[in-house]
Amino acid sequence: MRNKTNSKLPPGPFPLPIVGNLFVMNNKPHKSLAKLAKIYGPILSLKLGQVTTIVVSSADLAKEILQTHDSLLSDRTVPHALTAFNHDQFGVGFLPLSPLWREMRKVCKNQLFSNKSLDANQCIRRTKIDELIGYVSQRNLKGEAIDMGKVAFRTSINMLSNTIFSVDFANNSAGTNENKENKDLVMNMAETVGKPNMADFFPLLRLIDPQGIKKTYMFYIGKLFNVFDNIIDQRLKLREEDGFFTNNDMLDSLLDIPEENRKELDREKIEHLLHDLLVGGTDTTTYTLEWAMAELLHNPNIMSKVKKELEDTIGIGNPLEESDITRLPYLQAVIKETLRLHPIAPLLLPRKAKEDVEVNGYTIPKDAQIFVNVWAIGRDPEVWDNPYLFSPERFLGTKLDIKGQNFQLTPFGSGRRICPGLPLAMRMLHMMLGSLLISFDWKLENDMKPEEIDMEDAIQGLALRKCESLRVIPTKIS
Ligand code: HEM
Fold first, then answer.
1. Is the C or the N end of the chain the one with fewer CB within 10 Å?
2. What ipTM was reported for this prediction?
3. What does the alpha-carbon distance between residue 171 and residue 132 come to, in Å, rounded to a whole number?
C-alpha cells in the first residue's frame, strides 16, 4: 500500500515498474476494482501504465464526482482509436466541455430526444416492433430457438437507424438484406474501440499505434461516413425536390435547424454526431434487453408478474404503444432492476480532471482519469437490501429513478455528461421487452432449468455482456 502521508492521492495498490496496476484492466475490470475498493476504500488511486486513475465506488462519492465537482470533472480521457478522423475533436461523447460540445448537447436535448420529437417519430419504432414479432412468430412456427442477443441487436440497431435516418441497418424479418454490411460495421466498430490498447496507457506509443487499433478504426469510420454521406445526399435531394418532404426522423430535425442557428454544427460535425448516436446507442440497448430477459427466465415468479401486468393493462393481442409505458409500473421496475445489477457501462465513460480537485480529503490531480464503479454501487449492501437478489419490488412505491438524481443508481451517468439518449433508450427497452412478453411465452432451450442459466458477465466490445448467449424458445400466445 502506498504511504498516505507522502501524497494526498487516495490510497491504492503499489504500482509495479512501467505497467503500474494494469493487471486490473482484464475483461472484468468492474469486479477487480470492486475487490480493490474492499481493501483500499471507496476512493482509490491506480497507475494504469502511465495514466493516474481514480476509482470511486460509493453513492456518496459518485455524487461528489458527478454533481458537486461536475464542472471540473466532466472532460474525458480519449481512447486512441477515437482520434481517427479527429473524432475526439468533433464527437459529442469525447469532446471536452466546449462550445461545440454544448451546441451538440443542446440539439440532442431540444431537437432529437425531446418528448415532442420522440412522440412524433414513435410510429417508426412501432414498425420495427411489428417486424420483431413477425420474425419471432416465424421461429415459433418452426419450433426453433432464438439467440436473444442477436435478435435484440438487430431490433435495436434498426430501431435506432430508423429513428435517426429512416434506414434499416440490419436485414429485416422479410429477409431483405440491403444493409447487412452496415450492421457488421457498427458491431466491428464497438469491438475495435473496446479492445485493450497499449497506446491508451503509454501515450508515447500513440506515435506508432502498435496494435493497429486506430488504423482499423480509421477504416471503419471512413466506411460509416461514406454510408452517412449517401444517406444525407439522398435526403437533401428529396427535400430539394419536395419542399414539404419530411420523415420526422432525427436527420430531418437536424437539417431543419436554420443554418444561422447552427453556429458550429456543419455537415461534417453532424456525421460525427450520428456516429456517436448509432455506436453509443446500439450495444447498450441490445445487452440491457438480453439481461432483462435472462433475469426474467432466471426468476419465473417475476416473469409471471410482469406478464400479468401486461395482460391486465394492455390485453393479449393488442399492440403495446410507447404511451402505455407509464401505465406499467412493474415493467418499469424490471428495467430499473436490470440496470442496477447489469449496468452496461459499469465504470461509466471515463471522466478527466480539468484541475486538481479535493474530494474526501484526497486530491484528484489535474488530468487524472476517473472511473465511477456503478456496478459496485448497484450491489453495495450499505445502500441496497439483499443486493444480489433480482427484486423489481424494491422500486414499487418509491421515487428512486435512473435519471441521474439518485446516486445509488446511475447507469446512465449524471450531471452535465449524463447519457443524452436516455429518453430514447427507455422507450426502446420497454417497447422491446413488453412486446416480447405480451406476445410470447418463453422457455429455455434443451429443457434447461432457470437456476442453470449462467449469469456471468464480462466486457465485450463496449458493453458489459452476458458471457453465455441466451437461447430461448418462443410460443405465440393467441
Ligand atoms: C453517454 C449509458 C443508450 C448516446 C453515456 C454514458 C453512460 C451511458 C453511462 C456516460 C455518462 C457520464 O459520463 O456520466 C447508456 C445506457 C444506455 C444508453 C445504459 C441504454 C441502456 C444510449 C442511446 C444513445 C446514447 C440509445 C443514442 C441514441 C450517448 C452519447 C453519450 C452517452 C452520445 C455521450 C454524451 C457526452 O459525453 O456528452 N451513455 N447509454 N446512449 N450516451 Fe448513452
1. C
2. 1.00
3. 11
